[in-house]
Amino acid sequence: MIYLKDKVAVVFAASGDIAGAVSRSFAQHGAKVYVTARNLDAVKALAQEIKADGGNAEAAKVDALNETEIDNFLKKVASDNGQLDVVFNGIAVDYNEMGGRPLTTVATFKQFMAPMEKICGSQFLTSRVAAKYMMQTQSGGTILLLTAALSRSKLPNVAGITAASAAIEGLTRVMAAEWGGDGIKVIGICPGALMETKRISAWIESSAKHLGIPPEQLIAQYKAFDLLKTSPTLKHVGETAAFLASETGIAFNSHIVDVDCGKMNIL
């Protein structure tokens, strides 16, 4: 099934593994995809890959934390196409921006606020600007936010990103309530730990070092909570995003959709 035929989609922070996978799936499902990031070379390479696979993609340099850049870019996309149907923001925070995994009693206020300012702040900016142009073009459309299951977990030493993840989920529900009357649905995507991504690999290495255990032991502990004998992949996340952005995906408006194949330790 082709979910997004003739739709116009914009992906922010598309240089990341998850946003890249979402971009590929959008294109495979028929959307014209604008892939953006601060790293122009990275998104140019992604756009070329999508085109080589038969998709339609354009690359642009946009800082997902700069509201002026976001506004100027989405204004142009909406003007050039007469519509703006899907927006996904895959921005993430590096562990070094949080000072690693410090105890809450040790973390500085700056370290605690880093995820809130970067990931929640960016989602706020891209979502509200996207909604403005979806309303102007009467596109309806879908805004997809990225969150993490830390919001519903009980893990030590990750206060900042846990609080930011919970904030993104709350923001999702508020925006869905505000913009539903304009035909805009807002959904949060919450992938499980994707072992194939560079970010999770770095997290495993950092956490294992912090805990003084082999990385393989930490992976085994995480997988012990799996309900199935399988784990989510980047392809699963991309395909889920394309489905949620489709007309059929309207049933999930305002929801946080877990893409983790089921976990016993996540509410």
Question: Any overview of this molecule?
Answer:
The protein has 267 residues and is an alpha/beta fold. It has a single domain, classed as NAD(P)-binding Rossmann-like Domain (Rossmann fold), CATH 3.40.50. It is 47% helix and 14% strand. The chain is built from eight helices and seven strands; from the N terminus they run E-H-E-H-E-H-E-H-E-H-E-H-H-H-E. A seven-stranded parallel sheet has the order 3-2-1-4-5-6-7, with helices on both faces. The longest helix has 29 residues. It starts with 7 loop residues before the first strand and ends in an 8-residue tail after the last strand.
Present the secondary structure layout.
Elements: E1 8-12, H1 17-28, E2 32-37, H2 40-52, E3 56-61, H3 67-81, E4 86-89, H4 109-137, E5 142-146, H5 159-179, E6 185-191, H6 198-211, H7 215-223, H8 234-245, E7 256-259
Parallel strand pairs: 1-2, 1-4, 2-3, 4-5, 5-6, 6-7
Helix pairs in contact: 1-8, 3-4, 4-5, 6-7
Structure at a glance:
This protein is an alpha/beta fold. Helices cover 47% and strands 14% of the residues. The chain has helices at 17-28, 40-52, 67-81, 109-137, 159-179, 198-211, 215-223, 234-245; strands spanning 8-12, 32-37, 56-61, 86-89, 142-146, 185-191, 256-259.
Given helix and strand content, the structural type is: alpha/beta
Q: Helicity, in percent?
A: 40-55%
Quaternary structure type: single chain
The CATH class name reads: Alpha Beta
